[in-house]
Design goal:
alpha/beta; 18% strand; eight-stranded mixed sheet; five-stranded mixed sheet
C-alpha cells in the first residue's frame, strides 16, 4: 500500500491531499481552517485533517511531495531583476528578504514543519514537483480519459505561464511551455487590478462584470498589449505592464491607453467604462483560447482535453470552448488553482516516478470533489448547545420534504451536509440554497446575505437527468466550470424599453422563468448533481422538483464576502447568525432564525475585507 501526501503552499491557496494506492482519500485547503481567504501558510491544519480522515499518521506516509520547485522561481526572479535593472530594484528589494527568509531554503523549512507531525520524518521522503507538471497531473490523472491533451494556463509557476502536456495511461509529459512574462493569467490579472479588484481573488468579478459591457476595447488590447499568433501563442508588450519591475500590475501608460485612471478604491463606482473593459479582456482571453484549442486539436489529433491552472476557472471561456466542440470531451480540474497542485504533486509522483498503474474512473476520480471534513450528529448537536440556539432534529423521511417546502416558500437556507468540498466552488455540501424562480432573489442574496456587489451572478445546481431539458450544455458539468445558455423556451420576451437598458439597470429586467440564476446574456454556470456522488443534495432537488416542477436551486457558497467557505458547524452558525439567512440545516438539525433568542436573532454589524 503506497501512501502519498501532496502539498501546496507559500504562494496562495495552501492545501494538502492524501493519496493511497492511487485513490484520493482526502483533500483540504488551509483557508477553511484558518479562516484566512487564500491562506498561503504551511497547510498544517489541512495536513492534520487529511491524515485524520485517512486514519493514519505522517510516519506511515511513503512520500511527501511539494507542488513547486522554489529554486527555479528564485532563478526567474533574479534573472528578471537583472534584465530590468535598475528599474526593478524597488520590487526586488521588497521581495528578496521574504525569499531569503521563507522560500529559498524551503526544503529545510518544510522538514521543520513536518517534524511537528513526525519528529523523525526523514529528508529522503520529501520530494518536489514542477509547478506546471503538478497542475497538468491534477487535471489528467483524475480525468476519465486514457489519453488526453492537457492545457495549463495560470499567472506563473517557476518560469512557465502556460504548458501543453500529453497524457497516456499512467504517463504524462509536458511537450511545450509558454514562459514568463508572457502570461494569459497575468494579462487578466492586470485588468483585474486596473478595474479596482483584488489580484488573485477578484478575477471572477471581472468575468461576472463582462456581460454588462460591450467589448469595444478588444482591438486596442490586441493591437497594443498582446501580439497574438494564429496558433494561440502570444507575447505581451511589457511597455504597458509593471509586474516585471514593481509590485503593481500596470503602469500609467496602460491607463493612458484606455483614457481612464486605475480604479484604486473599490468604493469608487463601477461605471459602464469598467464593464466595457471587463467585456473586452474577457473577449480577448476567449479569442486566445479558441486559437490555442484549434491549433492543439489539429496538431496533436487527440479528442480529449483537460484543463488546469487559474485560467481554467474562467467558466465563461470554458463554455465557449465547449460550445465549439473542437474536442469530443473536456474535463477541468475543479480545484484548478494552486490548491489542486497538491493533488497533482501526489498523483504525478505516484504514476510518473513510481510507475504505478492508473485506474480510470469513467466519470472521474474526484468523487464529486467532496473530499474534505465531515461532522457527526453528536458533534453538531454539541455545537448547537454551546451556542444556545433553538433547533429541531429532523428524521430522514421528513428532512428533505421540510427543507424543500421552506425553500419553496421563498426562504434562504444554509445547507451543511456530509464532506466538505475541495476547491473554490460550493458544490452542495457547504452551500446557501434558494428558489431560482424568484425575481428578487439575486438582489436579496447579494446585498443581505453575501454582502457583495449587486451584479455578481448566482449559479444553479440541477438534477443530472434534467440538465439537457433546460440548458444548451455540451459537457456534463458536476463542478460548476462551464457556462451554458438557458434554452429559448424558458426565456421571457423583454419589452423594447427594457431592452434599451444598459449597465446595472439590466439587473431589474426579468429575462427568464428562473431569474435568480439567469445572467443578462441568458447564461448560467450550471452544476449537475449526481445521486452517486452527492445523495443528500440530490434528494433535496428531487423533492423540490416534485413540489414545484423545477429541478434546480440557486447554489452559492456558504460564506460572506472576504471569508472562506465554512468548514465547521461553528463557522456555519456564525455565518448564519451574522446574515439575514432564514434557516440553517446542519446535518439533520434545523435552525430557524425567527425561533432564536433575541440576542442571537439580531444581525450584528459586519466588516468585510476586500475580496
Amino acid at each position: 500500500m503506497t501512501k502519498i501526501l501532496g502539498l501546496s503552499g507559500y504562494y496562495h491557496d495552501s492545501a494538502a491531499c492524501l493519496i493511497i494506492d492511487g485513490s484520493i482519500i482526502a483533500a483540504c485547503q488551509e483557508e477553511r481552517f484558518s479562516r484566512i481567504k487564500h491562506d498561503s501558510s504551511f497547510p498544517s491544519s489541512a495536513i492534520d485533517a487529511v491524515l485524520s480522515i485517512g486514519k493514519i499518521s505522517l510516519d506511515e506516509i511513503d512520500a511527501v511531495v511539494f507542488y513547486d520547485k522554489p529554486f527555479l522561481t528564485f532563478e526567474r526572479l533574479t534573472e528578471t531583476f537583472l534584465y530590468e535593472a535598475p528599474f526593478g530594484f524597488g520590487g526586488f528589494s521588497k521581495i528578496m528578504p521574504l525569499w531569503m527568509k521563507d522560500k529559498l531554503f524551503l526544503k529545510s523549512k518544510l522538514l521543520k514543519c513536518l517534524a511537528k507531525f513526525d519528529s523523525e520524518f526523514p529528508a529522503e521522503k520529501l520530494f518536489f514537483s514542477e509547478h506546471h507538471f503538478s497542475h497538468a497531473a491534477s487535471a489528467f490523472y483524475p480525468s476519465p480519459f486514457t489519453d488526453a491533451l492537457v492545457l495549463t494556463l495560470d499567472g506563473v509557476g517557476e518560469w512557465a505561464c502556460g504548458s501543453i502536456a500529453i497524457g497516456s495511461g499512467n504517463k504524462l509529459e509536458i511537450v511545450k511551455e509558454m514562459r514568463f512574462p508572457h502570461s494569459l493569467g497575468l494579462l487578466y490579472s492586470a485588468f483585474t487590478y486596473y478595474t479596482g479588484f483584488k489580484v488573485n481573488s477578484g478575477e471572477y468579478k471581472v468575468m461576472g462584470l463582462a456581460p454588462y459591457g460591450t467589448p469595444i476595447f478588444s482591438d486596442i488590447i490586441l493591437d497594443n498589449l498582446i501580439n497574438l499568433n494564429e496558433d494561440g501563442s502570444f507575447s505581451l508588450n511589457l511597455e504597458y505592464f509593471n509586474f516585471t519591475r514593481g509590485l503593481t500590475m500596470v503602469n500609467d501608460k496602460f491607463a493612458a491607453l484606455f483614457g481612464e485612471p486605475i480604479r484604486t478604491d473599490e468604493n469608487f463606482p463601477v461605471t459602464q467604462f469598467h464593464m466595457d473593459i471587463a467585456a473586452s479582456v474577457q473577449h480577448v482571453v476567449e479569442t486566445v483560447l479558441v486559437k490555442m484549442a484549434t491549433y492543439l486539436r489539429h496538431e496533436y489529433g487527440l479528442p480529449n482535453l483537460c484543463l488546469a491552472g487559474g485560467v481554467a476557472l474562467n467558466c465563461v471561456a470554458n463554455g465557449v470552448l465547449s460550445k465549439l466542440q473542437l474536442f469530443d470531451n473536456i474535463w477541468v480540474q475543479p480545484a484548478a488553482g494552486d490548491a489542486g497542485g497538491s493533488i497533482g504533486a501526489g498523483l504525478g509522483y505516484l504514476h510518473s516516478e513510481l510507475n504505478m498503474p492508473r485506474t480510470i474512473n469513467k466519470e472521474d476520480s474526484m468523487q464529486g470533489s467532496l473530499l474534505g471534513t465531515s461532522y457527526s450528529d453528536k458533534s453538531i448537536e454539541d455545537c448547537l448547545k454551546e451556542f444556545g440556539v433553538t433547533y429541531t432534529k429532523l428524521n430522514q423521511n421528513s428532512k428533505y420534504q421540510s427543507v424543500s417546502s421552506i425553500i419553496k416558500d421563498g426562504n434562504v437556507v444554509g445547507w451543511f451536509q456530509d464532506r466538505m468540498e475541495f476547491g473554490p466552488r460550493a458544490l452542495g455540501a457547504r452551500s446557501i440554497l434558494a428558489d431560482p424562480r424568484r425575481s428578487d432573489m439575486q438582489k436579496k442574496l447579494n446585498l443581505k446575505i453575501k454582502f457583495r456587489e449587486s451584479f455578481r451572478p448566482f449559479a444553479p445546481c440541477i438534477l443530472e437527468d434534467e440538465e439537457k431539458n433546460y440548458f444548451e450544455s455540451v459537457n456534463a458539468n458536476p463542478y460548476m466550470l462551464f457556462v451554458s445558455r438557458l434554452k429559448r423556451k424558458y426565456h421571457i420576451d423583454v419589452k423594447p424599453d427594457e431592452n434599451k437598458k444598459i449597465g446595472f439597470d439590466k439587473l431589474s429586467v426579468v429575462r427568464s422563468a428562473f431569474p435568480a440564476i439567469t445572467h443578462v446574456d441568458y447564461s448560467a454556470r450550471v452544476q449537475i448533481v449526481k445521486k452517486k456522488t452527492n445523495p443528500s443534495l440530490h434528494k433535496l432537488l428531487a423533492e423540490f422538483f416534485k413540489k414545484t416542477n423545477c429541478p434546480m436551486l440557486v447554489n452559492t457558497s456558504f460564506n460572506v464576502r472576504g471569508q472562506p467557505i465554512v468548514e465547521s458547524p461553528k463557522d456555519a452558525l456564525e455565518c448564519f447568525l451574522g446574515t439575514e439567512m432564514d434557516y440553517l440545516v446542519l446535518g439533520d438539525f434545523l435552525i430557524a432564525k425567527n425561533d432564536q433568542p433575541e440576542h442571537l436573532a439580531a444581525t450584528p454589524h459586519l466588516v468585510f475585507e476586500p475580496d
